[in-house]
Write a sequence for this structure.
């Protein structure tokens, strides 16, 4: 029993299933399926979280019927071929004392006929706002067939070793579509009041119970609030919960918020939305029922989870992204080593974001997440490759695995430098880190100064703790040149010195400094690091389409600047869509009166007058600004590597990582830093 988190560590029983603690790895998409069946990737992924101490794993949704195929990599659980994979997964999870439930579902109108070649089925002929495809109202005969398919898949799950099932009635489900007055306009016995709209749910539950019996655990995941005008509200859900409890068909309730295709940013909220933002749903449900209730939604550390349990807001805690970031979240938390937990950033870049791109699930700070089944790729000495010294083939052919401990000098204490030090020290090398600035973190620490991006600071906290744990010392306020490196006498040098601003061609005559009575020019990093303080009317030129431009625009507007954002892309913050940050950015931008100019480029600057051209119309107009702030591509700050090579230091002993190799995003820096230990 955990001393710090006794409630989180305590047992609980759902139906006939007893769980060793209250931590749930709740259902979420992975894109791991292969040809409609679970894969070795699923097996390794779920096994890692079971080994990490989670008490209950709930699989991603399993489709119950051939008419439901909303995205390519869906598990078709109505196909008996899935059984081999299911049995392997359940056996692996049980081997670590965890329990596993199968979430079963039909997505209804929230999908596409692209894969199934069937018209979408829905309670009423109302197209989903994302997929924009006309569904057909499901008939009584099809309803009976769908109910039977739920029973069949529930039986298959039981026979495959699952401890229970969860019926999705929440964010992406035909059941929710029937429950919602917004999408259910039927005039028959399946529409109207809550009794009619819930008829499908109870027909499914009765069919399932008839097939699996009373001793098999059955739960439902309900939508507490669709966050849509005219949709399900918490009062409707509380009414449903009472009827569900009275039916004696359900053993527990899981909770959700939003609709997966209209208010998805509420379901998988990014760091811009406060942790525990949706706890009003499980807390009200918990007060209205004796059934055990699962809460979820940006609960990212054990202290917060314990508080939810202590305050009676829920009985179990659904923790997904935090266990993606750290598979050992549960074991670390419940052994009272919660300071060792690798906190999730809620950045959504490699987990949620990759789903939107039809890619495997991943994690920005834990590249092994989702890739537990893979071997490490063949390493390549990146400095030599960068300078064209070796071809990829010769790199592989001449690579020698060094097993003896070497003295490694890491230049730079940003994410790439810190992660390099950790991975190298874990391989037995003797590592020293030198950082020119007075603090660690590089550009990530700068980005975390924006209030809506503050949790990026958790990455630096995580890495700094790991550096300390491996016994590596960080020396701050120390710039290294060739002479200093030679004096230190390392066997290997890892250059992680980051990047520097780069002026676009149309600003090449300007200096990155404010000029009296002239246009001031700086980049976003200079604003974040207080090297420039734009005032008056500010034009943010956003060529990146991610948080760099929008975050600084928001920061400057909050300081009183009149801010305009111009981008050549279709809309400002185009890449924010995949991380579910676009909606909240637009809400904040409107509140701060930030003007947005999509599909525009700067063509000429004369004094403080800026000529701007619209892509589509070629119309040019002029605006007057006091400052231009650049959110554009930076250039590597890696001159030390070249200077070392010129002195005769072996190029194969110089390694570039992160922005010093090529300025990109955090994930690439972490991956390269993890691999560097295999390169020396």
């Amino acid at each position: 029993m955990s001393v710090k988190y006794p409630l989180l560590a305590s047992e609980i029983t759902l139906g006939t299933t007893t769980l060793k603690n209250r931590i749930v790895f709740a259902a979420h998409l992975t894109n791991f399926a292969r040809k409609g069946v679970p894969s070795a990737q699923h097996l390794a992924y779920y096994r890692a979280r079971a080994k990490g101490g989670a008490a209950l794993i709930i699989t991603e949704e399993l489709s119950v019927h051939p008419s439901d195929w909303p995205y390519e990599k869906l598990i078709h659980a109505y196909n008996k071929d899935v059984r081999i994979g299911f049995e392997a997964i359940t056996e692996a999870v049980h081997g670590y004392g965890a329990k596993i439930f199968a979430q079963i579902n039909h997505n209804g109108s929230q999908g596409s006929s692209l894969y199934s070649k069937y018209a979408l089925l829905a309670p009423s002929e109302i197209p989903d706002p994302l997929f924009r495809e006309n569904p057909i109202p499901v008939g009584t005969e099809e309803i009976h067939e769908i109910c039977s398919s739920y029973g069949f898949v529930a039986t298959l799950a039981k026979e495959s070793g699952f401890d229970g099932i969860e019926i999705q009635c929440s964010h992406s489900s035909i059941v929710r579509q029937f429950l919602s007055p917004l999408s259910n306009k039927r005039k028959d016995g399946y529409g109207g009041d809550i009794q009619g709209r819930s008829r499908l749910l109870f027909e499914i539950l009765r069919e399932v119970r008839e097939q699996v019996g009373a001793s098999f655990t059955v739960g439902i995941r309900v939508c507490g609030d669709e966050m849509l005008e005219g949709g399900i509200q918490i009062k409707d859900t509380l009414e449903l919960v009472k009827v569900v409890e009275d039916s004696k068909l359900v053993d527990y309730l899981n909770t959700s918020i939003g609709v997966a295709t209209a208010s998805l940013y509420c379901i998988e909220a990014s760091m811009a939305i406060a942790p525990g933002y949706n706890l009003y749903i499980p807390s009200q449900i918990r007060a209205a029922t004796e059934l055990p209730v699962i809460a979820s939604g940006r609960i990212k550390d054990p202290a917060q989870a314990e508080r939810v349990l202590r305050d009676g807001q829920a009985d179990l805690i659904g923790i997904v992204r935090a266990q993606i970031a750290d598979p050992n979240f549960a074991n670390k938390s419940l052994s009272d080593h919660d300071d060792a937990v690798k906190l999730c950033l809620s950045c959504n870049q490699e987990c949620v974001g990759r789903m939107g791109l039809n890619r495997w699930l991943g994690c920005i700070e834990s590249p092994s997440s989702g890739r537990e089944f893979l071997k490490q790729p063949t390493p390549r000495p990146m400095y030599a490759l960068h300078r064209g010294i070796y071809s990829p083939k010769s790199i592989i052919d001449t690579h020698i695995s060094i097993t003896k401990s070497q003295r490694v000098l890491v230049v730079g204490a940003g994410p790439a430098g810190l992660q390099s030090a950790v991975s190298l020290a874990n391989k037995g090398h003797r590592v020293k880190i030198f950082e020119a600035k007075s603090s660690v973190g590089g550009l990530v620490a700068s980005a975390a100064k924006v209030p809506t991006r503050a949790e990026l600071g958790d990455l630096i906290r995580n890495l700094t703790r790991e550096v300390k744990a491996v016994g590596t010392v960080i020396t701050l306020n120390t710039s290294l040149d060739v002479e200093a490196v030679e004096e230190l006498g390392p066997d290997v040098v890892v250059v992680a010195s980051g990047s520097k601003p780069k002026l676009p061609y149309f600003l090449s005559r300007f200096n990155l400094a404010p000029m009296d009575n002239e246009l001031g020019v700086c980049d976003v990093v200079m604003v974040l690091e207080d090297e420039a303080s734009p005032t008056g009317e500010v034009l943010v030129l956003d060529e990146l389409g991610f948080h760099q431009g929008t975050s600084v625009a928001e920061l400057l507007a909050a300081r009183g600047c009149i801010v305009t954002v111009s981008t050549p892309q279709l809309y400002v913050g185009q890449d924010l869509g995949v991380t579910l940050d676009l909606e909240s950015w637009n809400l904040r931008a409107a509140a701060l009166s930030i003007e947005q100019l999509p599909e525009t480029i700067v063509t000429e600057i004369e004094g403080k007058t800026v000529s701007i051209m619209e892509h589509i119309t070629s119309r040019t107009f002029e605006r007057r600004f006091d400052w231009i702030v650049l959110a554009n591509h930076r250039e590597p700050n890696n001159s030390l590597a070249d200077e070392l090579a010129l002195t005769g230091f072996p190029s194969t002993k110089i390694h570039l990582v992160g922005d010093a190799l090529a300025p990109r995003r955090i994930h690439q820096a972490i991956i390269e830093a993890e691999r560097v230990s295999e390169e020396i």
Remarks:
- The CA atoms of residues 254 and 377 lie 39 Å apart.
